[in-house]
């Protein structure tokens, strides 16, 4: 872990160590024995815990339950679901009786394990419902009133799940009838609490008549229990009961009980009544809401600041649902007062002095501040609902200052919650989304990466709304008035990169792929594209590198300027494909995979086909291995007969691998790849029915690429005519003509996105790739079988529509012609890097398994 720290850096806890370097190096710390992680057993204990290995699973379970230790019995009960799957009859006959006996004297751990195992057996349906009822139900009911609350709750959860599947008659005789006596005041509080929860579950299993006659009297009795815990528990079950008895009985029976409980002396009972009323708002009509519920809510809100802070937490959480349920009932004055109450909750606790030392704050004050933070967090959660409450048109006047406070709240949970809600707020504001531009910048620049992580989940949608002003039909980019956006985005990425939270960094890079539709090509090139390339070259986290590589390819896809495209493609080939580090060459293959996904087949074949297959000569086995996995996708970019010469070069490379490969792992993958290549059928210049959808998609990609180049040329013409400037009408006319020529009938491309889109140039780097243009201008569809076995089949279905043949050299634009002036993009074996230097991530040779390189979580 590096050299020891200098003496000045040693804390007081290290004061026992020598202070000079020589003594520190020679210092031998005193050996302190640590306790063994496993307990030591005496020979007698080992003998007692040993079981005959020849026993069957059932016999071993019976033996351990009869004569084993508690830990062994607990293990048997934990494996009860397995025994039921393996041999249900013998388990029920021999093991389950022993389990019943053990549970009578079992401890807490064994009881909890049994409750979970019984529930698992029910969920797995190992036995029929009848058998389960006969064998397990009485055991569950017997332990419902266990003296330990945790054990009792565990058995109760199991019983509530069992109630879902039991028939009515069984429920009536085994559960409902005994419940009449269990719910009496003479029973224990624990028994009455269990009765409350069972009643809430039983309501949905019986008809309204049975509920009214047998269940509702018990409900009323428990709502008036002498213990506040029982009243509160029964009150929280009234929501389930109301759903089972219908609207009329709810209004006549449940509502009066809720009104009475809302005035209870116990604060927890009043809180339960309030939350139940809010959840049942949809059940009541307008008269009940305005005459009964609204006065109760008003009184509850007025008294909330004088009560316990936990009531404020619940009130702030249910505020949005309350506003929605009572919308249209408030008078203007009540509406204003309710809004002011919400604003007050949003700043609760911020008025106090924060300059004191936390170590000097009394514990009760710290606890109070935590509750205030929860209140403000709940207010942030309900902010979209409050926008609806005041109407988005009134946002600036009524709620903007509150939104500002929530975005600048000193506590991370509050800012995190408002960041999650930011997209919903943007959608609600629609054309008024420009009002929260500055708050977007604030959250992007937040010091907490948790806040940034929450915001970027919907960052593309937020930026799209910002750029269009919330109107999908508006083409003008509205972000020109927000100069701080790009610095905020770049700073956010740098903060994520400097942290250990690589998943946030990866997600942010993935979301940046939306930028070509948001900002200009030059802004992307100078502020983001180079950064993506740097991340691909230098970052040590593989998912981050791949995210940056894919986003880089998208930036390249929409780049407008020819020289910029040349530079990026040249860097990808020379610094990644021909890089000294094998790690960079692996990333080049990842980039090639993204190029195949994002660009047209012709683009990949024009620029990246030959540099990719040249890596078959790479000195590092891992690179050759990864290329072999990629070869089927590489071959899928070819079309016959236009790319016949590329197919021949692919055959030659694979033939060399088969003949010359010395690494056994790579050779095995090469052989499997050859079989896969042999099963592939080649695409033709003419459309084939079996490849119709893929060919049509590729045609659309190629048409868009051509269209973007034509638009770039038109823009250059407009700029060059400075002496006789081209009128906007003429420019638009030519551009519209380009649309008409290049867009096929029935296919529409959004003009606004194409205006913002960035085309790329199809000019080759080196004369070596010039033979791509030397294909016949027109060729009939003929079957072609490669000379090397295993490298392809040709299935020919010719279509007569020549408009689909876009890969012919005669139809290729002049910008596809080779450019000898550019540096070579090839990577031949003659000038390849020395294997000793190119066989490592840095300088040393290295062979590693592809799957072994994983980033730490």
Summary, kept brief:
By secondary structure, the chain is an all-alpha fold.
What does this structure look like?
With 857 residues, the protein is an all-alpha fold. It has a domain at 686-717. The chain is 62% helix and 1% strand. The protein is built from 41 helices and 3 strands. Residues 848-857 have a biased composition (Basic residues).
Tell me the helix content.
Answer: 55-70%
How would the global form be characterised?
A: globular
Number of helical regions: 41
Q: Mind telling me the C-alpha Rg?
A: 37 Å
SS-derived structural category: mainly alpha
Order of the strands making up the biggest sheet: 1-2-3
- How much strand content do the residues show? under 5%
End-to-end Cα distance? 20 Å
Please give the largest β-sheet: 3 strands, parallel
In the predicted model, the low-confidence regions spanning at least 5 consecutive residues are 1-32, 737-838, 842-857
Instruction: Indicate the mean pLDDT.
Output: 78
List how many beta strands DSSP finds: 3
Biased composition (Low complexity): 809-826
HEAT repeats: 215-252, 254-292
Coiled coil: 689-721
Biased composition (Polar residues): 827-842
């Amino acid at each position: 872990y590096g050299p020891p720290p200098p003496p000045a850096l040693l804390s007081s806890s290290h004061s026992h160590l020598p202070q000079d370097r020589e003594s520190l190096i020679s210092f031998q710390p005193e050996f302190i024995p640590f306790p063994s992680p496993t307990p030591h057993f005496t020979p007698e204990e080992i003998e007692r815990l040993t079981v005959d290995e020849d026993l069957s699973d059932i016999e071993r379970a019976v033996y351990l339950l009869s004569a084993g230790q508690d830990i062994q019995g607990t293990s048997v009960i934990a494996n009860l679901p397995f025994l039921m799957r393996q041999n249900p009859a013998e388990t029920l006959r021999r093991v389950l009786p022993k389990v019943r006996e053990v549970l009578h004297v079992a401890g807490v751990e064994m009881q909890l394990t049994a409750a979970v195992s019984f529930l698992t057996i029910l969920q797995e349906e190992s036995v029929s419902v009848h058998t389960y009822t006969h064998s397990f139900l009485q055991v569950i009911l017997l332990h419902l009133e266990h003296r330990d609350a945790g054990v009792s709750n565990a058995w109760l959860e199991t019983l509530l799940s069992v109630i879902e599947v039991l028939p009515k008659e069984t429920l009536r005789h085994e559960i409902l009838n005994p419940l009449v006596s269990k719910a009496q005041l003479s029973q224990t509080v624990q028994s009455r609490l269990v009765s409350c929860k069972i009643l809430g579950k039983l309501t949905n299993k019986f008809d309204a008549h049975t509920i009214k006659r047998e269940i509702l009297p018990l409900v009323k009795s428990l709502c008036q229990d002498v213990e506040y815990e029982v009243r509160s528990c029964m009150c929280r079950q009234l929501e389930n009961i109301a759903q089972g008895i219908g609207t009329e009985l709810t209004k006549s029976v449940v509502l009066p009980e809720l009104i009475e409980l809302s005035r209870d002396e116990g604060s927890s009972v009043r809180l339960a009544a309030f939350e139940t009323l809010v959840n049942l708002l949809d059940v009541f009509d307008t008269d009940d809401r305005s005459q009964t519920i609204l006065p109760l809510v008003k009184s509850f809100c007025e008294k909330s600041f004088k009560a316990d802070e936990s009531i404020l937490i619940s009130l702030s959480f249910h505020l949005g649902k309350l506003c929605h349920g009572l919308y249209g009932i408030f008078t203007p004055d009540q509406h204003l007062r309710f809004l002011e109450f919400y604003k007050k909750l949003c700043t609760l606790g911020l008025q106090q002095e924060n300059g004191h030392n936390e170590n000097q704050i009394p514990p009760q004050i710290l606890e109070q501040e935590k509750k205030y933070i929860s209140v403000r967090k709940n207010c942030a959660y309900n902010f979209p609902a409050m926008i609806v409450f005041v109407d988005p048109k009134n946002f600036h006047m009524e709620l903007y200052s509150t939104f500002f406070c929530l975005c600048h709240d000193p506590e991370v949970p509050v800012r995190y919650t408002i960041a999650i809600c930011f997209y919903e707020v943007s959608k609600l504001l629609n054309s008024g989304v420009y009002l929260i531009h500055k708050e977007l910048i604030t959250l992007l620049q937040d010091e907490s990466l948790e806040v940034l992580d929450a915001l970027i989940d919907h960052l593309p949608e937020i930026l799209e709304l910002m750029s269009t002003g919330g109107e999908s039909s508006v083409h003008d980019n509205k972000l020109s008035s927000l100069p701080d956006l790009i610095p905020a985005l770049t700073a956010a990425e740098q903060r994520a990169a400097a942290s250990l939270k690589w998943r946030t960094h990866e997600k942010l890079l993935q979301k940046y792929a939306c930028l070509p539709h948001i900002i200009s090509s030059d802004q992307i090139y100078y502020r983001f594209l180079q950064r993506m390339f740097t991340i691909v070259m230098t970052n040590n986290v593989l998912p981050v590198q791949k995210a940056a590589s894919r986003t880089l390819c998208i930036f390249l896809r929409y780049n407008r300027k020819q020289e910029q495209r040349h530079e990026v493609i040249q860097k990808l080939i020379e610094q990644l494909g021909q890089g000294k580090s094998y790690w960079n060459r692996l990333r080049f293959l990842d980039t090639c995979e993204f190029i195949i996904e994002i660009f047209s087949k012709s683009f990949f074949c024009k620029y990246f086909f030959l540099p990719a297959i040249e890596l078959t000569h790479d000195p590092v086995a891992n690179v050759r291995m990864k290329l072999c996995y990629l070869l089927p996708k590489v071959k899928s970019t070819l079309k016959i007969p236009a790319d016949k010469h590329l197919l021949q070069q692919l055959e030659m490379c694979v033939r060399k691998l088969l003949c010359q490969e010395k690494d056994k792992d790579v050779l095995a993958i090469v052989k499997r790849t050859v079989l896969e290549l042999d099963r592939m059928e080649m695409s033709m210049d003419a459309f084939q029915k079996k490849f119709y959808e893929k060919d049509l998609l590729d045609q659309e990609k190629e048409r868009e690429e051509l269209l973007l180049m034509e638009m770039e040329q038109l823009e250059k013409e407009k700029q060059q005519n400075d002496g006789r400037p081209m009128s906007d009408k003429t420019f638009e006319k030519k551009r519209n003509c380009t649309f008409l020529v290049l867009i096929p009938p029935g296919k529409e491309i959004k003009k606004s996105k194409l205006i913002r889109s960035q085309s790329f140039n199809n000019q080759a780097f080196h004369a070596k790739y010039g033979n791509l243009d030397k294909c016949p201008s027109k060729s009939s569809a003929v079957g072609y079988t490669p000379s090397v076995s295993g490298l392809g089949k040709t299935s020919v279905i010719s279509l007569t529509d020549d408009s689909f043949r876009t890969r012919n050299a005669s139809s290729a634009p002049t910008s596809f012609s080779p450019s000898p002036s550019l540096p070579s993009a090839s990577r031949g074996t003659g000038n390849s890097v020395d294997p000793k230097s190119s066989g490592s991530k840095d300088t040393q040779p290295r062979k590693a398994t592809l799957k072994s390189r994983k980033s730490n979580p």
